[in-house]
Amino acid sequence: MVFGGWFVAMNESSRGTAMSGRSLTQTEAEGRASLLTVERCDVAVDLTGLMTGSRVRCESTITFTCHRPGAGTFADCAAAVESATLNGVVVASPVEGRITLTDLAELNVLTVASVAECSADARGVHKAVDPADGETYFYTDFTPDYARYVWACFDQPDLKAPWAFTVTAPAGWQVLSNSGDPKIEDLGSVRRWTFPPTPPLATYNTVINAGPYYELRRRGAGHDLGLFARRSLAPILDRDAEELFTLTTQGLEFFADKFGMPFPQHKYDQVFTPEYPGAMENFGCVTWMDWFLRRSTPTRAEWDIFARYLLHELAHMWFGNIVTMRWWDDLWLNEAFAEFASNWAAVSVTTYTDAWTAHLAGEKLKAYFMDQGPATHPIRQQVRDVAEAEATFDAITYPKGASVLHQLMTYVGEANFSQGLTNYFAMHAWGNTTLQDLIDAVADASGRDLNQWRAGWLESAGTDRLTLSHDGDGFALIAQGAGGRLRRHVLAVGAYERSGDRLARTALVEVEVAGERTRIDLPAGADLYLVNDEDLTFASTRPDTATRDTFFRNAARLPTATARGVAVTTAWDMLINGEATAAEAVQCLTGVLAVETSASVVEPYLNLAVEAADLWSPESERDELLRTVAAVCRSLSGVGAYRKAALRGFARTAAEPEEVAWLQTEAGEDIDLQWRALVRKAQLGSPTAAEAHALLDRDPDPEAWVTRLQVSAATPDAAEKETVWQTLVTDRAVPLAFVHSVATLFWSAGQDDMLRPYGEAYLDLLPTVDRGGSIPATVFTRSLFPLFGIDLTFVERAEDLAAQAVPVVRTNLLDRADRMRRILHSRG
C-alpha cells in the first residue's frame, strides 16, 4: 500500500507533522533484524483527549541492543512526533515515517513522544461514537504495519519483544490490552491502567481497546474468559454469551491437545467494538467488529461461520502470536493454518460438525474462482515489501491454504500431522519461523519427504483439473496441471447407484494422482461417479462426458451433505468456466436444497442459487429462474430449522407485490425480515417511504439507518441513487461491515440505464480508493464494482487501470473484472 498523501494535521505546538510512511522492504527488514535485538517496549498512551477531540498522545520507549556498536539504522514512526531522543540525545524528526538512528551503542534507549489523530481515514487508531447513546469507544488495529502510525517502534514481525502498556483514560472507561490483571489507579476524572509486560510479541499483535464496555466473564479450560460489547448491545451479548464461552472453551482444549501446548496466559478476552474492520488475533485480547453480534437471532449458517471465525482467531494465539512468521512471504503460516485449524476443531469438538462442508460451500468456492483467474498467486509468494503483503490477505492465502493443509493432513495422517505441530511449537515458541521449519517438523514426524509437496502446493499457482474418463479399458483420472505442472493429489472417487429415489454409494476408491493419467478401479454401470468424494483435495473436477447431463439432475440424490457439496462445487465451477449454464446451476442447487439436511449449508446454497439466477443468467431467463428459486424458498420456509434462511431467500426473489405482502405477514415481529421485504418492494418499484419511516422508528438497532439506506439503494429512482452514492462512497459514512450489503442493492438488476453513470464514477474513484488502509481498499474495490449497466469495454478499462493501482487495489480489481467478464459471457 502506498502511504503517500496521508497526512494528519497538527497544531503549531507540535514538533512535527504526521507523514506518509515508506513501505518497509524485505531487504531492509532482514538488515535491521540482523543488527538489533529488542529487549522491551514500554508505551504510555493518553486517551483522555478523546472525550472532546480525536487525538491520542503516546510516549514509546524502546530498549534494544545493537550487535555492531557504531552502526546505524532507523525506527518507524509515521505519527506526528513531538520529541525524540536516542540515549538522551535529541534526534531529528522522521522523514517518510522513519527516524534515523546513528552511532548506536551496544545497549540503547529510544524515547519518542507522538500524537495520532483518529480521523476517518487514519491508520492504526479509531474512535467510534455509538449512535444509540453517544458513548465513545477506541481501538487500535496494527495489521500489517500500522503501529508506526501511532507510536515509534520497529514495525516488522521478526523483531518481537515484551510490551508494557500504561494507559490513561476517562474514569468511566474499561481499558483492555494483551496482558490481563492491570494495576488501576484512580486519578480523579481519569484512571491509569498499568499492564504487566507481555511475552515476546510482534508489533502487529499488540492492542489497546477502551470505552465504557459491558463485560461478561466465565471460567473455561482453566482460563479466565471475557466478553465485551458496547453497552447498547448488552442484550445481544447476553443472548450469545453461552455459545461464545462454550466455543472458546472447546477451542482452547482442542488446540492445547493438538499443538502440545496450552494457551500460556490465564486471561483471554474477546472485544466486540463498533466500526472495527473485521477481526484481529491480538494476543490474549481478540478484537471483533460487533456486526458479528447479529441484531436478529442468528441462523445456523451464521452461527457456523461465527464459530469457525472464533476458532480461527483462537488458533492464531499459536499460529502468529506464539510462533510468528519471519517475513510476510510466510503470511500463509498464520492465515491458512488458522483457517484450517478452525475447521479441524469445529468438526472434532463442537456441534458444528459440517464445518468442512460449509467451508466448501462458501470460502473454498471463492478460492477456486480466484485461483483460476488473473489474480492467482502461489500460496507462498515473494513479498518484496509490506505494500505487497497487504494484497495477499485473500481467498488463496485463506481458504485455498486451508484446503491444501487439509490435503497435507490426509497425505501424512492426522496423528503424524499433530505430532509435527507439537514438535514445531516446542522448538519455536516465542520465536520466528519460515515455511521450511514447519515442513521439516511435519516431515520428521511422518517420515515422508515433503519438499516436492511443498513446491507443488505452496510455491506454484493455479488449480489442477481432474476429469474422470471411461473407455474400453476402464476408468482413469486425467490430470491437467495449472501451467502444465501437476501436483500430487490424494483423493477419492465414489460410485453411486439408484436406490429408490436416492443414490447409494457402492464404492469409494482412494487414489494417489501423480501423473497425467491414473488408472482407477471403479465398478462399471453406476448412475453417478463423484470425483473428489469426501472433498479431500483442492482441484477443479469434472464428471465423465457420458454422465455429464444426468450429473445435474442426480446431485440432489447423493446421500450426504459433503457428497452433495462436492457436486454443487463441480456445477458452480462449470458455470464460472462457461461449461454450464445458469439454468443448469440453478437446477442443481434447487434440487439439492429441496433435500438438504445440513442447516449449515442451506443458506449458502440459497445465496448461490440467487446469484446464479440474478447475476449469471441471460436477461430473458432471469425472472423465470428467480421464480424457481422463490418456489424452493417458499417450500423450505415450512421447515423450522430453515425458515429464516428460506424467507431471506424469498425476500430476494419475490416477483410480485402480492408475494412481498405474504412475506411481510410471515415475518411478523422479525424486524430484519421486514426490512428485507421492504428492500424487495423497493426493487419492484413500489412506494416504500412511509413504511420505511415507520419501521425505522420501531427498530432498536443502532445501525438501523444503514438498513433504511439499503431500501434507498434498491429503489429505481435517480435521486435516491445519488443520495446513496454520496453517503456510501463520497462521505464514506456507512460502517465498513455494511458497505457490501448497501452496494449490492445499489447495483440492482433491471436498472441499467440509471446505473450506467456510476460505472464511470467507480473508475474515477480507483486512484484514491486505498485511503484509510488495506481493508477499506479491499472492501470498496470489490463491493462497488458494477454489476449492471456495463459491458466488456468497461471491464477492459478497469483491467487497464489495475496496472496503475497500488497492489491491494490491483489484485482485487483484477479479480472483480475477471468475475464480471465471466458473468457477461454467461449472460450472453
From TrEMBL:
Pfam families: ERAP1_C, Peptidase_M1, Peptidase_M1_N. Residues 528-817 form the ERAP1-like C-terminal domain. It is an enzyme of class 3 (hydrolase). The keyword Metal-binding applies. It catalyses: Release of an N-terminal amino acid, Xaa-|-Yaa- from a peptide, amide or arylamide. Xaa is preferably Ala, but may be most amino acids including Pro (slow action). When a terminal hydrophobic residue is followed by a prolyl residue, the two may be released as an intact Xaa-Pro dipeptide. Residues 248-455 form the Peptidase M1 membrane alanine aminopeptidase domain. Its cofactor is Zn(2+). Its EC number is 3.4.11.2. Residues 115-204 form the Aminopeptidase N-like N-terminal domain. GO terms for biological process: peptide catabolic process; proteolysis. One of its GO terms (cellular component) is cytoplasm. GO terms for molecular function: alanyl aminopeptidase activity; metalloaminopeptidase activity; peptide binding; zinc ion binding. Keywords: Aminopeptidase, Hydrolase, Metal-binding, Metalloprotease, Protease, Zinc. Signal peptide: none annotated. The keyword Transport does not apply. It comes from the Bacteria. InterPro entries: Aminopeptidase_N-like_N (IPR045357), Aminopeptidase_N-like_N_sf (IPR042097), ERAP1-like_C_dom (IPR024571), Pept_M1_aminopeptidase (IPR012778), Peptidase_M1 (IPR001930), Peptidase_M1_aminopeptidases (IPR050344), Peptidase_M1_dom (IPR014782), Peptidase_M4/M1_CTD_sf (IPR027268). NCBIfam families: pepN_strep_liv. Belongs to the peptidase M1 family. This is Aminopeptidase N.
